[in-house]
Structures are given as structure tokens and as C-alpha cells.
Design goal:
alpha+beta; about 350 residues; 14 strands; 3 domains; globular; Translation, Eukaryotic Peptide Chain Release Factor Subunit 1, Chain A; Bact_RF_family3; Nucleotidyltransferase, domain 5; 60s Ribosomal Protein L30, Chain: A; six-stranded mixed β-sheet
Length: about 350
């Protein structure tokens, strides 16, 4: 598969990445620092990491004396010592380490330098990068060619078509060729895309594309964005029962658009859908408060998240940087994700609440 990075040297952060981090066995060390994309300042970025490493060593020794701090921090130390690593940065770096291993993410989000040592990772700095992103499918359809992609904010990857027809000539049971023996007047009427025969070919082609996409991605969960002329929208969407095709499309013939150009036109549509989902979170929370199925009580959220009762945890932007009850929030986030719940970040919540949760039962 051919992946194009829209944001050079960045590492996308998806829900599965958050869930993997959330299930790290403690103690965990979480470090974020700002970085630079080039120039002499890239060499100073590693120096910015070193005092945070020293702080992590000190806190591990004080709070977790039985843990081999040097072994736990070895992957981070290796990054600090790698000159090549610092030459391929973006705007921020998030590093996570635990006795079981570690992960790092180069991001286009700037961070305030900080280190957190605790039983759970501090995912709050990187949450917006995940929840404001949206993984989506992109289907580019023209009679001369079909292309299929999976994409997010930072990448686009072309996928093999599999059983999806590659063009109208590949569609089974339909043919673009005219019979060899026919009246000249009849040939003129149908051979140039305006007659009933040509319409039937097009309809059959789009129907097969639609049904093949439905069979392959039924229940996938990612929304589909169509890139095609406007007239194809209805025919493609007609047979998508378990694949959600977004209402807005990349309108026009996509044949001459590169993957990067397609992404540039599709991402605003995906971003609008991601923003809409934040609104849905607030609506669900507002409807459930007062019914026993939701709360804004951070302490209760923490207890219910630990036992797997939290379906959706919502955080206001201000909760991402609040020091008060930070460890409690980190535990609630980790438990929600580990128990297959979702975490969302919204600009603000009614009543100026910092947190809210919708329960499964």
C-alpha cells in the first residue's frame, strides 16, 4: 500500500494508539516537549528533554523505589542521545514509557514542556490530536477509473480494489462495446454516452461499485467520502446500507487529482464530521444528565470508569491543563479507554463543568 504523509515526519494518533497507551502497566512516565522542524534549534531540543528525564528519575526513586528506573527510562535516554532522531521533528514530541515498553509521537501540536510520573499515562496533551482527527474512506469514481483510499488528517493510503470494478469496462455483465452490426442511426444515438444503453452500462457499473464497497466495509465504522461527479451520488449511495456515506462529496471528475489533491478536498468534509460528533457528545450528555445515566462529578466518573461503566467521557479544553485532580483524570481516561469506551474533548460544557460522562447502564 502506498501511504502519503500530508504532514511530513508526523505520527498520526488514533483511538487504538490511545487504547494501547491506556493499558500500559504502571508506573508510567509521560513527557511532552516542543520541538523544531529544522535549523540549529533541533540540536537544542534533546537538551530540553534531559532535565525532564532527570525529574522522572527522581520521582520514580521517591514514589516507586522498587522499580528499575534506568531500565524503564532507557528508551527515552536512547532518543535523547540520537542525533538523527532530532533532525526529523515537527512541532511537538510526546513520549510514553513503562516497564513494558514505550511509544513516542512526533506531532504538529506545540507542547509546554512537562513530565508526569504515575500509575497511568498522562494522555491529556495528545487527546485533541486523536479526537479532532477522523479516519475515513475515500472512494474516487469515474467511468475510466476507480480508486479507493483510507485516510486521516495526516495521511492518505491507496488500497487495493479487490472485488470493486476498476472501471466501467471491468464491471461484470455490462459492456461498453456496441454490437458490430446495427443501424447507423442507432449507433449514433447510443455510443457517445447519451442513449439508454449507455445509461444502463453506467447504472450497472455504479451499482457493482456500491455493492462491492458495501460487502467489503459493512460495519467498518469509518465514514465514506465520495469523489465523483454529482450525478453519481445517488447511484453509489443507494446500495450502502451498513456503510455511512457522508452527504457532502468531492464534486467533479477525480481522474486527474493526485492522492494529495484528493485529500486536500476531502479533509474539510471529514473535519466537519469530526466537529459534528463533538456536538453529538454534548447532546447525549445533556439528555442523560438527571436520569442516572450521566454525571459531571469527577470523583464518581473515576470510580465508574474503573469498573467499566463509562461509555463516553467528555473533557472540556480547560481540563487538559488543569493540575487539580490531574492524577484522578488520568486514571479515568485510562480506565475508560481500556474498557472500550470513548473519550472526547469539547471547547466547553454547559454549566462550566470540566468533565462529564455518559454511563453504559
Amino acid at each position: 500500500m502506498n501511504t502519503r504523509n500530508i504532514i511530513t515526519d508526523s505520527d498520526p494518533i488514533h483511538a487504538d494508539d490511545l487504547r494501547e497507551l491506556a493499558t500500559m502497566s504502571g508506573p508510567t512516565v509521560s513527557i511532552v516537549i516542543p520541538t523544531h522542524r529544522g535549523g540549529a534549534e533541533t540540536l537544542s531540543d534533546s537538551q530540553r528533554l534531559r532535565p525532564l528525564l532527570d525529574q522522572a528519575r527522581k520521582e520514580l526513586a521517591e514514589r516507586y523505589p522498587d522499580v528499575d528506573a534506568e531500565s524503564l527510562l532507557a528508551p527515552i535516554q536512547s532518543l535523547a542521545d540520537s542525533r538523527r532522531f532530532w533532525q526529523t521533528q515537527v512541532d511537538g514530541l510526546a513520549i510514553y514509557a513503562s516497564p513494558g515498553g514505550g511509544r513516542y509521537f512526533r506531532t504538529d501540536r506545540d507542547f509546554t514542556p512537562g513530565v508526569t510520573v504515575g500509575d497511568h499515562p498522562n494522555l491529556r496533551p495528545i487527546l485533541p490530536l486523536a479526537v479532532d482527527d477522523l479516519e475515513f474512506l475515500l472512494l474516487a469514481v469515474s467511468r475510466g477509473g476507480v480508486r479507493l483510499f483510507e485516510a486521516d488528517r495526516a495521511t492518505i493510503t491507496q488500497l487495493p480494489l479487490g472485488n470493486i470494478p476498476g472501471s466501467d469496462e471491468d464491471a461484470e455483465g455490462v459492456s461498453t462495446r456496441e454490437p458490430q452490426l446495427q443501424h447507423q442511426r442507432s449507433q449514433d444515438a447510443g455510443a457517445h454516452g447519451h442513449g439508454p444503453r449507455d445509461y444502463n452500462v453506467l447504472e450497472g457499473f455504479l451499482r457493482q461499485v456500491s455493492k462491492a464497497v458495501e460487502a467489503r466495509f459493512s460495519g467498518d465504522g469509518r465514514p465514506l467520502i465520495l469523489a465523483a461527479v454529482e450525478e453519481y451520488r445517488g447511484a453509489v449511495g443507494e446500495h450502502l446500507d451498513n456503510v455511512v456515506m457522508l452527504d457532502r462529496i468531492v464534486a467533479g471528475n477525480p481522474e486527474k487529482l493526485s492522492p494529495v489533491e484528493l485529500h486536500g478536498k476531502a479533509w474539510p468534509i471529514a473535519k466537519a464530521e469530526a466537529d459534528r460528533r463533538h456536538d453529538v457528545t454534548l447532546e447525549r450528555l445533556g439528555e442523560a444528565v438527571g436520569t442516572g445515566r450521566a454525571t459531571h462529578d469527577t470523583g464518581l466518573i473515576g470510580r465508574e470508569a474503573e469498573v467499566g461503566r463509562v461509555s463516553t467521557l467528555a473533557l472540556a479544553q480547560r481540563a487538559l491543563t488543569a493540575d487539580e485532580r490531574a492524577a484522578e483524570l488520568d486514571a479515568a481516561i485510562a480506565h475508560t479507554l481500556a474498557n472500550r469506551g470513548t473519550v472526547d474533548v469539547v471547547p466547553e460544557m454547559p454549566g462550566n463543568h470540566a468533565t462529564g460522562a455518559v454511563f453504559r447502564y
